[in-house]
């Protein structure tokens, strides 16, 4: 089987022409770095993505703190992750890197804060 | 009037990086003027990741990327005056600004570094036909409401234009429970980066319609629907292809325009192609001592390049401040076949410089040529060249001659 | 039921002028306005032209009111603090036929009492405005430009200042008469009664007239579309430039500088069924680009910042369809009703003269006692942008809110937005702030300031996000919170 993948690992966004059988990658062309091959392999076996969203904050200078995942999670768990993150309310002050949810849904990825919010 | 060595107008990614590099180069008296309460510019609302891969080797969110610079500016003790709007810059580098705390202020600067960023093109500029209901937002405005103010702009959404912020917002809206019905791009190719098409649209099953545009907006109070149609090669809607799409929200992502109102006041000449200043290889405008970098100069695709360009500008500005002037740049850099624009537009021919450019149309397996008269300066083979992506090249002085303009074209 | 001496239906420029002129007397005055503000329809959707009065048939109300309104406007603008410039106007021609029409127009102007009109050649035109198209022109020195939003608002605010009540979002749905002769108006907000009712309902004036017992009028809305051009184009435009009148003695597309430095190009002109359909069309805009370029040599796409449309409520003969004069009437068989029907262009110029005629019709039936407390002066919101550097310094020193720029394109400060949010009419919409301050009227069209303005509306008026409206009815801006909890 042949398919063109757009690698999302970096802004180069390489168009990778991959030949594969089942989950096994036979050849790749068009990637500027080895991460491209890993990406295609991952896409075939278990496509993963990170997400970024916000959580409520009380008592801070802003109503929302932005958060992101430390590692990609399976694509089909993204909306489960959003629901889980949506339950959280933080209390100011909070700082970049604060872990909001460790090991989100047991997927091995932490939800961390990406913005400093002092007390109002 | 207070004297200041270097005034940096705008504390976004370009301004912060420029101020830091000025300090590194020994400039003591630096003042950043920032109109928001917090520095960081547009990055404050860009909460998605993917920033800093080139610079820091990791994928950061916008606020994290900005904070690294903000922290260093604070450590260096560089003055950043927030909540302050610059009202005017004159050609003799008098800067007039206002803030509630400090009132009206006037500064006499030796150098002014323009880092005001860009703004979004609007519905009015495109003259999109139809009514004027609520529910129409540019992508950046929607992003601000959603990511900073905790306000949801709508539920049933159509996106006009495939700029990167529009693509990012398609994903963002979807994650927050809105339904994005499609992205309609008038060009036959996307305006945004391929990875954003993949991870913001394809991942979420959001259709992208190329050579399509919104031909009418309907609804007298809140938006009720838009009419979309296929377009011909002159971007005119093709009769009979119209389709009405019920929606309550229209997000526009139809281009960014460098914010040069203050530059114009200072007498800075603008390039009609970039809508930013004409600059030389020192990022110096036609007004001596006035420099520009980042999105105010030309719209970038990645913030990492904004930081880099601002740092290069700051090095030149420091040299200008220390030496009193910079080497003359008499050679013109011309955008030739299939090149949309080039930065800088003038060079000396005696120094290395970074050339930034965008191509006019998507191309594969092409050769980019830099030539002076009949002499080839550089040839670069590109597997793909997309208008969505900024191309940067380092040009060595060893390859240049000093007596001919430089032309850049696709072979 | 709320009782008044006089109820005015429609708070446009004419209704507000009537209300303001009536407050010169000891009367209890109420204005019923269907929309969210006083200038959302015809009064706010036009060229903002103070007409000289040369176009109209001698002896008509249009001719008389325009000349009268034009003559007094320097005083009116000063009294009401309305941006106004007496620019003069060029009416340009290309052909010999145009020359003939222009000469006839000068003659008509003379008959109507319009001073100073003259035919000038291209060389003179170049001295006046090189951006004007045309080979020759009539120069009319008395024409001017004004801010139609602020004029209407100023009249309304001055009326309120002198005791009139404005009822916004109040739609008159029916009328009845009490035994004592008073008129009752049914509205979506309950009943109102009065001894006198003034119909200044613009596009709906024929409908309201019939409701009040005077059937038989017909309003034909004539729609026009416009471009608003950037101030970068505005630096070229010195004076309104109109084409020679058409065979039917109307004007096609013209190009007019605004008091704020933009340029309006339009309107085209076509009859429509629904006068309140303010959509603009692709074909219309393409046509304006072409016809506008004949009037204004710098008409370019890169200068577009907005489009809009309006409709002139022309009164036409129900049989022949022929366009009629303004109608200002009181009929003995329908006592208590002052009927103002078909007030279209030059309605902005004519608003006060029409209002005085309406008051006179009431005065003919009852003695009006002067209101000694009447104050003709209204002060607008002090604009930071228009102040000199030293005045700016002073303004911020006195009020720090002048030091916070909310709209960067038009340099509108927090102080101005706050004054607009707490306006005397009680308007609470985003567009209401816009027309009072110019915030979001610039080239970024609210990209920077709209989010700040909506936040200020929420904060100052204690509104939830979902209660913020752009303009009328269900024009809600937001659907709620992203994550629940507080909003910024």
Describe this structure as you would to a colleague:
The complex is a heterotrimer of chains A (120), B (411) and C (488). Chain A is of the alpha+beta class. Chain A contains 2 helices and 10 strands; from the N terminus they run βββαββββαβββ. In chain A, the strands form 3 sheets. In chain A, strands 8-5-6-10-9 form a 5-stranded mixed β-sheet. In chain A, strands 1-2-3 form a 3-stranded antiparallel β-sheet, with helices on one face. The model of chain A has no long low-confidence stretch (mean pLDDT 95). Chain B has 411 residues and is an alpha/beta fold. Chain B has helices spanning 13-24, 62-75, 123-126, 139-147, 164-175, 194-201, 261-265, 303-323, and strands spanning 2-9, 30-33, 49-51, 60-61, 79-81, 84-89, 94-99, 103-114, 118-120, 136-138, 151-152, 156-160, 179-185, 208-210, 212-218, 225-230, 243-246, 249-252, 256-258, 290-292, 331-335, 339-343, 346-347, 353-359, 363-372, 375-385, 391-395, 406-410. Chain B has 8 helices and 28 strands. The longest helix of chain B has 21 residues, at 303-323. Chain B folds into 3 domains: 1-120 and 256-326, FAD/NAD(P)-binding domain (3-Layer(bba) Sandwich), CATH 3.50.50.60; 122-254, FAD/NAD(P)-binding domain (3-Layer(bba) Sandwich), CATH 3.50.50; 328-411, Sandwich (Immunoglobulin-like). The N and C termini of chain B lie far apart (54 Å). Among the domains of chain C are: 84-145 and 220-314, D-Amino Acid Oxidase, subunit A, domain 2 (D-Amino Acid Oxidase, Chain A, domain 2, 2-Layer Sandwich), CATH 3.30.9; 389-467, BFD-like [2Fe-2S]-binding domain (Arc Repressor Mutant, subunit A, Orthogonal Bundle), CATH 1.10.10.1100. Chain C has helices at 13-22, 61-80, 96-112, 122-128, 148-161, 205-211, 231-234, 282-295, 347-363, 389-398, 414-421, 430-437, 450-461, and strands at residues 2-9, 29-32, 49-50, 84-85, 89-93, 118-121, 136-140, 144-146, 165-167, 172-177, 183-187, 190-199, 218-229, 241-243, 254-257, 263-266, 270-271, 304-316, 327-330, 337-341, 405-407, 412-413, 480-481. In chain C, the strands form 5 sheets. In chain C, strands 1, 2, 9, 10, 11, 12, 19 and 20 form an 8-stranded mixed β-sheet that branches. In chain C, strands 13, 15, 16, 17 and 18 form a 5-stranded antiparallel β-sheet that branches. Chain C has a 4-stranded mixed β-sheet with strand order 6-7-5-14. The longest helix of chain C has 20 residues, at 61-80. The radius of gyration of chain C is 23 Å and the shape is globular. Chain C starts with a strand and ends in a 7-residue tail after the last strand. The chains are: A alpha+beta (120), B alpha/beta (411), C alpha+beta (488). Chains in contact: A-B, A-C, B-C. At the B-C interface, β7, β8, α3, α4 and β11 of B face α8, β18, α10, α13 and β23 of C. β11 of chain B pairs antiparallel with β23 of chain C, so a sheet runs across the interface.
């Amino acid at each position: 089987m042949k398919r063109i993948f757009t690698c999302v690992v970096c802004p180069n966004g390489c168009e990778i022409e991959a030949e594969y059988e089942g989950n096994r990658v036979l050849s790749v062309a068009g990637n500027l770095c080895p991460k491209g091959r890993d990406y295609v392999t991952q896409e075939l076996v278990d496509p993963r993505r990170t997400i970024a969203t916000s959580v409520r904050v009380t008592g801070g200078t802003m109503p929302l703190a932005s958060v992101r995942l430390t590692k990609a999670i399976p694509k089909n768990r993204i909306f489960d992750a959003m629901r889980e993150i949506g339950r959280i309310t933080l209390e100011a002050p909070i700082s970049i890197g604060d872990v909001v949810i460790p090991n989100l849904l047991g997927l091995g990825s932490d939800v961390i804060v990406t913005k400093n919010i002092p007390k109002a | 009037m207070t004297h200041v060595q270097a005034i940096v107008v705008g504390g976004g990614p370009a301004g912060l990086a420029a101020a830091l590099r000025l300090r590194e180069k020994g400039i003591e008296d630096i003042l950043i003027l920032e109109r928001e309460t917090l520095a960081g510019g547009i990055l404050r609302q860009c909460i998605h990741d993917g920033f800093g891969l080139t610079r820091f080797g990791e994928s950061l969110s916008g606020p994290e990327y900005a904070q690294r610079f903000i922290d260093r500016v604070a450590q260096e003790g560089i003055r950043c005056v927030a909540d302050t709007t610059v009202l005017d810059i004159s050609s003799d580098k008098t800067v007039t600004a206002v803030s509630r705390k400090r009132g009206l202020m006037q500064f006499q600067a030796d150098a002014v570094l323009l880092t005001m960023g860009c703004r979004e093109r609007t519905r009015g500029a495109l003259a999109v036909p139809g009514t004027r209901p609520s529910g129409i937002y540019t992508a950046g405005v929607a992003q601000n409401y959603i990511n900073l103010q905790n306000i949801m702009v709508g539920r049933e959404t159509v996106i006009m234009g495939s700029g990167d912020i529009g693509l990012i917002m398609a994903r963002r809206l979807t994650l927050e429970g809105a339904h994005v019905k499609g992205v309609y791009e008038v060009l036959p190719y996307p305006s945004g980066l391929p990875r954003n098409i993949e991870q913001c649209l394809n991942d979420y099953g959001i259709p992208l319609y190329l050579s399509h545009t919104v031909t009418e907006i309907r609804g007298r109070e809140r938006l009720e629907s838009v009419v979309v149609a296929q377009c011909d090669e002159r971007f005119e809607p093709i009769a009979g292809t119209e389709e009405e799409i019920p929606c309550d929200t229209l997000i526009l992502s139809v281009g960014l325009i460098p914010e040069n109102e203050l530059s114009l006041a200072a007498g800075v000449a603008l390039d009609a192609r970039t809508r930013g200043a004409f600059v030389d290889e020192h990022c110096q405008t036609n007004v001596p001592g006035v420099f520009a970098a980042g999105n105010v100069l030309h719209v970038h695709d990645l913030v990492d390049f904004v930081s880099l360009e601002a740092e290069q500008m700051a090095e030149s500005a420091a040299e200008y401040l220390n030496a009193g002037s910079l080497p003359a740049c008499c050679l013109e850099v011309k955008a030739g076949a299939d090149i949309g624009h080039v930065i800088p537009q003038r060079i000396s021919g005696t120094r290395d410089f970074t050339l930034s450019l965008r191509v006019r149309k998507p191309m594969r397996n092409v050769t980019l040529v830099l030539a002076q008269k009949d002499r080839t300066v550089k040839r670069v083979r590109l597997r793909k060249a997309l208008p969505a992506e900024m191309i940067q090249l380092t040009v060595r002085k060893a390859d240049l001659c000093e007596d001919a303009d430089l032309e850049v074209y696709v072979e | 039921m709320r009782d008044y001496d006089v109820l005015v239906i429609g708070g446009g420029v004419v209704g507000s002028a009537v209300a303001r002129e009536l407050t010169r007397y000891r009367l209890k005055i109420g204005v019923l306005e269907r929309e969210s503000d006083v200038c959302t329809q015809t009064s706010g959707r036009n060229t903002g032209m103070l007409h000289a009065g040369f176009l109209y048939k001698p002896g008509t109300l249009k001719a008389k009111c325009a000349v009268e309104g034009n003559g007094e406007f320097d005083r009116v603008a000063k009294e009401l603090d309305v941006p106004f410039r007496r620019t003069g106007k060029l009416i340009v021609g290309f052909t010999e036929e145009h020359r003939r029409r222009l000469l006839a127009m000068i003659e008509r102007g003379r008959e109507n009492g319009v001073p100073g009109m003259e035919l000038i050649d291209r060389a003179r035109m170049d001295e006046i405005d090189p951006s004007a198209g045309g080979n020759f022109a009539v120069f009319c020195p008395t024409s001017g430009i004004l801010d139609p939003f602020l004029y209407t608002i100023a009249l309304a605010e001055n009326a309120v200042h002198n005791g009139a009540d404005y009822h916004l979002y109040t739609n008159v749905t029916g009328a009845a008469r009490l035994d004592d002769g008073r008129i009752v108006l049914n509205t979506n907000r309950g009943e109102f009664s009065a001894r006198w009712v003034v119909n200044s309902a613009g596009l709906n004036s024929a409908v309201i007239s019939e409701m009040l017992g005077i059937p038989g009028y017909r309003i034909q809305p004539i729609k026009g579309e416009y471009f608003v051009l950037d101030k970068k184009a505005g630096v070229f435009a010195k004076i309104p430039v109109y084409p020679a009148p058409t065979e039917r003695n109307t004007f096609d597309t013209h190009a007019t500088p605004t008091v704020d430095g933009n340029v309006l190009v339009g309107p085209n002109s076509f009859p429509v069924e629904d006068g309140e359909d303010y959509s603009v069309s692709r074909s219309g805009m393409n046509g304006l680009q072409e016809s506008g370029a004949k009037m204004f040599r710098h008409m370019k796409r890169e200068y577009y910042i907005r489009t809009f449309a309006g409709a002139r409520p022309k009164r036409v003969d129900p049989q022949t369809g022929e366009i009629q004069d303004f109608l200002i009437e009181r009929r003995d068989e329908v006592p208590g009703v002052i009927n103002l029907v078909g007030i279209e262009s030059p309605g902005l110029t004519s608003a006060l003269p029409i209002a005085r005629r309406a008051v006179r019709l009431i005065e003919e039936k009852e003695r009006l006692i002067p209101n000694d407390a009447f104050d003709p002066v209204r002060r607008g919101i002090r604009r930071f942008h228009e102040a000199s550097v030293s005045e700016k310094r002073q303004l911020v020193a006195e009020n720090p809110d002048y030091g916070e720029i909310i709209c960067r394109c038009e340099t509108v400060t927090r102080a101005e937005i706050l004054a607009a949010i707490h306006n005397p009419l009680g308007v609470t919409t985003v567009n209401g702030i816009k027309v009072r301050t110019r915030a979001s009227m610039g080239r970024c069209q609210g990209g920077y300031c709209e989010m700040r303005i909506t936040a200020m509306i929420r904060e100052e008026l204690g509104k939830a996000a979902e209660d913020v409206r752009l303009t009328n009815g269900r024009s809600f801006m937001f659907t709620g919170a992203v994550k629940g909890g507080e909003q910024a």
